[in-house]
Structure formats: C-alpha cells, structure tokens
C-alpha cells in the first residue's frame, strides 16, 4: 500500500496546458507490482526454427509497398453516392418515375458534387440497369482554392470526420426545387424540379452575395417560405432573402472580438462537446409553419435556437509553429468535473410583408429563466418542431446522462426579451395560465443514455389533448427498441410572473399507452444519424436493425397499428445502409460484406396494396456495382468465442498471405475497444482498414476483437465499462488472442503487437502496462493518458465526475502507471498530431514527462500539422511506413 498522489491540473491561459502535477494528498491505492522486466514476466519465447521471419525492407522499400497498396485501393476506393433525395415525377406518361438527387464523386473527380439520376418506370427483368450519374452543376469547383478552409469549416470537418472535399452537405426544399449548399468558402443555390420543371443539362449555381465578414455556416432553407434562408456568422444567427438579397441579423450575442476570452456567448451554434460527444452539429431549428398570415400578406416566421454562455468554461491554447498567421489556436474546452456552458432555448421571430421584406424582428425568451424551469438540465441533446409548428420540442439530459426528458414547448411560453424587470413581469403575467411545458416522455437508467434522433410525433387534431409519437428507447430492456407512445397533455395553471420552483416531476405528463413495436436481444439502429421512415397511410414504420445478427444491419418494416410480425427487406449475408423514398415505394441500399466491396442498388417494393407489410423488394437498378478487389486483397475471417465468464465475443483475423506449415507468424492486435464503436461486422474492410491487409501481405497475422464495451450488443454489454475504463477491455482482448492461437496454428503469442488510435491508443498503452508478458510492443496513436484532462460530455458519461470515482479515474489513467511499463527499449511507440483539439497533445506531453521521470524508454512520432485524425496524404503515408518499420524491426 502506498499513498495515492492526487491529481492537480494547472492551466495557464497564455501557454496552454502548463502542467499536471502530483501531490501526496488523497486516498490510498494498492500497488500492483513492479514492471514485467523486473518481475521476470518476460515475453514468452518460441523455438526460433518455428518462427516466420518477416522480410525486412528499407524505408524506401516500405514506402513503395504503401504506394502499391494505395494504388490498388484506388480500384475500390469508396466513392459511393449518399444523402439521397427522391422526387416523384407527376407525368404518368413519362419514362421516369423519380429523379434521385445525391452527393457523390464521379469517375475521374477528386471532389464530391451534387448529382442526379433518373429512375425508369419500367425495367427489363433480364437486364442489369446501371443508372447514369449526371452532373447538376456545370464546371463547378466546390473545394476552396488550394484546399484551405476557414477555421470554422476545418473544425466542423474534424467533428464530422469528413475526409472528402467538395460539397459535403446540402439543404433541399422539395416543393420549390431549391438547393442550398456551402462551397469554396461561400454559399450557392440552384433550382431543379418544382414549378419550373426539371433541367436537362448542367446548370451554373448562383453564389449568394453577402455583406458579412467571415464564413456563413450551417445554412438552412426556411421550410415555411423558401425565399428565406438562415445561417450562422460570427456566432450569431442571420436570415436572408435569396430573391431580394436582404440580410438581417437576428441575434446579438457575439460582440465581434477575435478573443475567445472576451466573447464567450453565441446563438445557434453547437458547442465542441455537443458536436463531438452528442453528434449534434446545429444549434437552431426552423418552425415548419408560418403564423399570423393575414390578407395583407404579413406573416411571422420563427426559429428556435440555443443560446450559450461559455464565460465559465476553461480556455486552452494549442501552440503551433506551423501556423504562422496565428501562433496559437484557442478553444473553450470543459474538462471533466469543471463547468459546462450555461444554456437556454430562445425564439427568434421576424415578420415579413407581401413583398418578402422583413419589417420587424424580435428575440423571445421563456417566461421564466431556462435554468429555473429546468434546473437539472445540463445538455440540450436534440431539438426541433412538431410538423404543424404547434410545439417546439427538445430532449433534455442531466449531467450524469442517466435521465432524459422529451419536452414540448408551446411558442406562447416565450415572451419578448427585455432588460426591464417590471416589463418582463408584465409580459410573463400575460402568458395564459394553461400555457406550460409538457414532459411527454422520460428515460432513466443506471448505466448511461445513448442519445439518438428517433422521435416521430404524429399530427394532432384540433383541440386534442394528447400527443402520439414513435420513440426508440434503450433503457427499458437494455436493447434499443421502437415504442408507440401516447401522452396526455395535462393542463396546468401557472402564473409565470410569480417566483417559481419546479418539483421533481413538474410538467410530467401521464402516459396513456406505450406499445412495444419491436423486442428481443437485438437493436433498432438509432445512433449516428440512423433514421426511421413512417408511412401514415399504411401505418407502417421502416427501420434498420440487427434482428438477424449483430454483425449485419438490415432494413425491416413493422406495423405500428397492430404490432407483431417484423419483415426483413434486405438480403442476408451483407450489411446494409438504406434510404427510403418519400412515398415508400422504393429504397436504396448501400451494402457490402467482408468479401464483397460496396455496391449501391435501388429496389422497388411491389405486392398487393391490401397487404403493404408483405410487399416484396424487387431489384430495380444499380447505382454502383462492386469493384474488383486488388489481386493481393484477402478478406478477413470472422470468428466468435466465449470468454471464461461465458460472454460471446466476435472477432476477425487477417491471415498471413503466405502461411507456411508449422511456422508461427508475428501478430498485430488492432484495437479500439471503447463505446459507440463496432469494428467486427460483415461489411467490407478493404478501404478504411486497408493497412491491415497490407500487414497480412507482409506475413503478419492481424486480429481484431470487439470486447465488452463495444456497441450493437445492448446497453449492459456496452455498460461493462461504467466507471472502469481500461480495466476490463484488455482481458477480453487477451482471451481472444488465446482463442485464435488455439484455433489457428500460425499465431505466435511470443510476438504480439497491440496498436490502435484514440481510445485504441489508450488501450494499447493499457495492454503494455498490464500485460507486458503478452504484448511485446505497443503502438499508441493519439491516446488519452489521463482522464482528468478529457472533456465533460464523454468522460462523465462513462466515468462519472472525478470526485465520485477517484479510484476509477486513477486506475484508468495510463500516465499514472508508467512505472509498470517495461524497461527494455523499442517496445513503445507513441504517435500524435500536434494540433489535436480533441485529445490534446497535452496527453502525450504529460505521458512523456512521466516516462522521463520514471526513466522509461519510448519512441515518439509527432505530426506537426495534424489534428486528431491524420488528413494530409503525406502524413498518412509517413504514419503507415513508420508503423511497418517499427514492427519489422522490433516485433
């Protein structure tokens, strides 16, 4: 037993992360023994004669190998179309039933573009119809000059993990045929369909001029009047008229200072934690219906937005010698246990006349302060409007992320914002007493809540005191399933001008009915942008899930009126990602398997109209056929095994391409191991994980295992990490290695490397710390090395706040256990991007400081111009060559 050294993180606003020091205060921890090299737990040995020796190459030779694999990968590189929009053609006599819009990368192009295809009404059964990808835009370059993005766009690309250039998203208004998109650091629009008919040749998009300085981010078309669109400029919300060019600033949170310290407020902008940890990339939402339309043509348009005050959130500075024009990048970054931003929901309203001129604007706030009405809300996870515009809605999450509330907010609950207290009280008193928030649904768990988008409110009848909706819930059974819920909107009687203190269940609505539409030990896909499609005419809901196997995603359909049979619409043996047409007669599947590269097919649902549940998918046309694999590509083999605690786990192995009988091959364990991610599934791996095939081609065995903590296996399976990150994952990985060594005779357990990035980098370090007798070398990319230095949203979800879980934080912080690392050189390689604004370079800096203090050997590779993900092709090549060189020399 020895004293635990309590963490103290000091931060200097001029030098960034200054130090992480240790003092002798705090509780005690158990010493777990000396490093393996001192305990005698040396890495096991095999008979040298039975060892397969990987051929050693020069640095240039390894570069040539990487060049060759990349050249071959060009044959199968993922340029698949995505972000589909179906538009049905009304001319029954015409040859085409739909025009399909999407983003894609045409052959010979290096950037994403806006494309379309025509879907024929009739096809020949015996023929494979390959749809033409047609350019919508004429000779249009969407990527900024020299590929230089604004800082805001660059950071958004990081949060969205975007690797492609060109047009990466667009907004579409189907009735008018209006498209709106960002390109070349500006905004553009074009029209196709609608009242003007369909184009037959590419068009030149029109740039939308502006008086604003700086980029216009997050552009959206007003659904109630497509003459207007909105955007964010310098952390405030603006609207503009496409036809007249009029621009109007709606919020005045930001003062325009370049200093992060002096200008902490924003409107309509999702903060770093909300984007990175909750997958919400916007901070404002248009009301779909206009109000107050009169005979003179005046109408009111509304936008719900989040106002954020980050004045109490820490600032970090990331210095960079490579960024000459800005010596440091400054960010607001809430570390675990520290203060999050203050948040509020507000309304921005503006009134227009018959000519489309903005005649008045108004900012509105809730009749009582947001923090008074909802004192336990820490995060606004999602928000939006019901389709009739009668209610705004929001998903509120508490700080432990164990209680989520789905709340309706009537627009009448918002009053004009004013600094005059007497005026505010008078305005609040004028709010009708029966106007109130409604908590229509609540989810509670002792694990954590995985936030998702699936909430489908049905239209309300006039005067109806109920709300019926579809919702996916993981907390009830531990598996994510669909429910049809009816909540009674219980009227209250509040005087909003009086002081208010809400009770525990204030505003909570009785649940009249909750019907499970799906059930079982499998999951409806809800996270990471997954959707459902609801056909109100046939009472069917289409969704994606893992009913057949956790290794494959499929499209299913079930009735929400008479829940029962669930029908699968996609072909087994592949994993699918699907999009339904707006009138539910067609769907698109982007699918693949471990042995089949991706292809994209269009299917038509056909069958009797009196039995819509059992309509069968018929192949209709192809948008992209599977490319031929490179001659040296060998797909991995998927396996499963049961751990000593009888948990079924899945893995995959890339066999060495030249297995010699009786020979043992060096083995690389590629690992992620954290929540929200599944590596092992029946989808093609030859693009994203091409380097694993390259390793196999050189004679390595490569093993990948999804242990406890990975997703798609239910909340309890993922929740095995709760409060103990880094303490359960390695055991699963080691058991998996032992299994493959027994199953496949070529795995050399005396020569195992562990390698991963981000959470995988963290686990690579954990493996070498706790199992140095198993792992000969560790290669850790961008690792979290001390959880006290990571953000609130992620760390507290899985580890609680530090004061509630001090032992868990310490046990999971690799930088505090460097004394257990081996003393032999060439067993540890650390890689990190110097500009990383997610897992800051501080983590590697602190780890290296601790290694030096402990006298431990290590190697370090820094990428000065990279962030959390390596983007630059030259950096990517260098990383891969470094990996191969380290393995051939030291494994």
UniProtKB/TrEMBL annotation:
EC number: 3.4.14.5
Keywords: Aminopeptidase, Hydrolase, Protease, Serine protease
Molecular function in Gene Ontology: aminopeptidase activity; dipeptidyl-peptidase activity; identical protein binding; serine-type peptidase activity
Segments forming domain Dipeptidyl peptidase 8 /9 ,N-terminal: 48-163
Domain of life: Eukaryota
Main EC class the enzyme belongs to: hydrolase
One BP term from GO: NLRP1 inflammasome complex assembly
Any matching Pfam family: Dpp_8_9_N
InterPro entries (UniProt xref): AB_hydrolase_fold (IPR029058), Dpp_8/9_N (IPR045785), Peptidase_S9_cat (IPR001375), Peptidase_S9B_N (IPR002469), Serine_Prot_S9B/DPPIV (IPR050278)
Occurrences of domain Peptidase S9 prolyl oligopeptidase catalytic (ranges): 691-891
Record domain Dipeptidylpeptidase IV N-terminal: where: 174-598
Catalytic activity of the protein: Release of an N-terminal dipeptide, Xaa-Yaa-|-Zaa-, from a polypeptide, preferentially when Yaa is Pro, provided Zaa is neither Pro nor hydroxyproline
Tagged with keyword Hydrolase: yes
Family listed: Belongs to the peptidase S9B family. DPPIV subfamily.
Protein name, per record: dipeptidyl-peptidase IV
Biological source species: Panthera pardus
């Amino acid at each position: 037993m020895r004293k635990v050294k309590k963490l103290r993180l000091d931060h200097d606003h001029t030098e960034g992360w200054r130090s992480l020091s240790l003092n002798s205060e705090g509780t005690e921890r158990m010493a777990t023994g000396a490093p393996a090299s001192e305990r005698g737990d040396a890495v096991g040995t095999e008979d040298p004669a039975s060892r397969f020796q990987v051929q050693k190459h020069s640095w240039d030779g390894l570069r040539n190998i990487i060049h060759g694999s990349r050249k071959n990968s060009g044959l199968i590189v993922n340029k698949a179309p995505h972000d589909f929009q179906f538009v049905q053609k009304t001319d029954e006599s015409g040859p085409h039933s739909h025009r399909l819009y999407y983003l894609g990368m045409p052959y010979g192009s290096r950037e994403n573009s806006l494309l379309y295809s025509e879907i024929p009404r009739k096809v020949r059964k015996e023929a494979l119809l390959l749809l033409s990808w047609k350019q919508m835009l004429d000779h249009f370059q969407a990527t900024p000059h020299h590929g230089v993005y604004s800082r805001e766009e660059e950071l958004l690309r990081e949060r969205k993990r975007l690797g492609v250039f060109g047009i990466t998203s667009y907004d579409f208004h189907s009735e008018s045929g209006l498209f709106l998109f960002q390109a070349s650091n500006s905004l553009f629009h074009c029209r196709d369909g609608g009242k003007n008919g369909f184009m037959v040749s590419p068009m030149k998009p029109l740039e939308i001029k502006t008086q604003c300085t700086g980029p216009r981010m997050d552009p959206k078309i007003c659904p109630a009047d497509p003459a207007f669109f909105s955007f964010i400029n310098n952390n405030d919300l603006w609207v503009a008229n496409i036809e007249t060019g009029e621009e109007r600033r709606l919020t005045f949170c930001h003062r325009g200072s370049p200093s992060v310290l002096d200008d902490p407020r924003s409107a309509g902008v999702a903060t770093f934690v909300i984007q990175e940890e909750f997958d919400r990339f916007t901070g404002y939402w248009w009301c779909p219906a206009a109000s107050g339309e009169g005979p003179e043509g005046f109408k009111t348009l509304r936008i719900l937005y989040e106002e954020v005050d980050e004045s109490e959130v820490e600032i970090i500075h990331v210095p960079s010698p490579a960024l000459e024009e800005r010596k440091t990048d400054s960010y607001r970054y809430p570390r675990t246990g520290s203060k999050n931003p203050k948040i509020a929901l507000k309304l921005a309203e503006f009134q227009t006349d018959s000519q489309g001129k903005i005649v008045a604007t108004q900012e509105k706030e809730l009749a009582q302060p947001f923090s008074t009405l909802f004192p336990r809300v820490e995060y606004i996870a999602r928000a939006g409007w019901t389709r009739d515009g009668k209610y705004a809605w929001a998903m509120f999450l508490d700080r432990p992320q164990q209680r989520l509330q789905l709340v309706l907010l009537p627009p009448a609950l918002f009053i004009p914002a004013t600094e005059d207290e007497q005026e505010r009280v008078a305005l609040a008193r004028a709010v009708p007493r029966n106007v109130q928030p409604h908590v229509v649904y609540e989810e509670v768990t002792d694990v954590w809540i995985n936030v998702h988008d699936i909430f489908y409110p049905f239209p309300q009848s006039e005067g109806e005191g109920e709300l019926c909706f579809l919702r996916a819930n993981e907390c009830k059974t531990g598996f994510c399933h669909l429910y049809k819920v009816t909540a009674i909107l219980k009227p209250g009687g509040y005087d909003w001008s009086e002081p208010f203190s809400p009770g525990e269940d204030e505003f909570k609505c009785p649940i009249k009915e909750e019907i499970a539409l799906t059930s079982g030990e499998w999951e409806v896909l809800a996270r990471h942008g997954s959707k459902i499609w609801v056909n109100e005419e046939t009472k069917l809901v289409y969704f994606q899930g893992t009913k057949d196997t956790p290794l494959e995603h499929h499209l299913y359909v079930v009735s929400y009126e008479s829940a029962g049979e669930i029908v699968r619409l996609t072909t087994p043996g592949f994993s699918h990602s699907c999009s339904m047409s707006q009138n539910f007669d067609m769907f698109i599947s982007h699918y693949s398997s471990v042995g089949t590269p991706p292809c994209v097919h269009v299917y038509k649902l056909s069958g009797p109209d009196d039995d819509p549940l059992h309509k069968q998918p018929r192949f209709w046309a192809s948008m992209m056929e599977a490319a031929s694999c490179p001659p040296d590509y060998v797909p991995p083999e998927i396996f499963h095994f049961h751990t000593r605690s009888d948990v079924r786990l899945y893995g995959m192995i890339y066999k060495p391409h030249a297995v010699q009988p009786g020979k043992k091959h060096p083995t690389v364990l590629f690992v992620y191991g954290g929540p929200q991610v599944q590596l092992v599934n029946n989808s093609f791996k030859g693009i994203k994980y091409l380097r694993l095939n390259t390793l196999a081609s050189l004679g390595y065995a490569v093993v990948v295992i999804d242990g406890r903590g990975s997703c798609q296996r239910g909340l309890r399976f993922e929740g095995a990490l709760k409060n103990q990150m880094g303490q359960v994952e390695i055991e699963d990985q080691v058991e998996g290695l032992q299994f493959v060594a027994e199953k496949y005779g070529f795995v050399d357990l005396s020569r195992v490397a562990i390698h991963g990035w981000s959470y995988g980098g963290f686990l690579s370090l954990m493996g070498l710390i706790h199992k140095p007798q198993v792992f000969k070398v560790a290669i850790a990319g961008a690792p979290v090395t001390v959880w006290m230095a990571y953000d609130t949203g992620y760390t507290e979800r899985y580890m609680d706040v530090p004061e509630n879980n001090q032992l868990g934080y310490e046990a999971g912080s690799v930088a505090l256990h460097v004394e257990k690392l081996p003393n032999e050189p060439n067993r540890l390689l650390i890689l990190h991007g110097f500009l990383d604004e997610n897992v800051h370079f501080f983590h590697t800096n602190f780890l290296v400081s601790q290694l030096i203090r402990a006298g431990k050997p290590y190697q370090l590779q820094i990428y000065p111009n990279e962030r959390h993900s390596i983007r630059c092709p030259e950096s990517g090549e260098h990383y891969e060559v470094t990996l191969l060189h380290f393995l051939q020399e030291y494994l």
